[in-house]
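Reopening this ticket.

The earlier resolution said the output was attached, but the attachment link was broken on my side. Pasting everything inline this time so it's all in one place.
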Amino acid sequence: QVQLVESGGGLVQAGGSLRLSCAASGRTFSRYVMGWFRQAPGQGREFVTSINWSSGSTAYAGAVKGRFTISRDSAKNMVYLQMNSLEPEDTAVYYCAAGVAGTYAYWGQGTQVTVSS
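Inline output:
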């Protein structure tokens, strides 16, 4: 049974930083792409960033490129999202997801990030 558990959300002032963590369990993720998505109030879920677990290759949404960094620790089965220079527009529930071939089949419960101006 695949489980993704996010942590690290909270309230931060604009310009600050947060590090989100995603603990992945239930299978070997070497063939998976791990992603972070977010959903702001009244809006749809949007892609933030992803990492290929095996190769380490990454992709970022334009709005976060240069500010956010995704990484993974294979030994701990952890995925991280380092968020710097946070803006009020980054306020959302952040979700960790795992998938293959462009389809994310597994999702965490989400963690709230609130950036005050």
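Reporter confirms the inline version is readable. The chain has no helices and eleven strands. The two ends are 40 Å apart (CA to CA).
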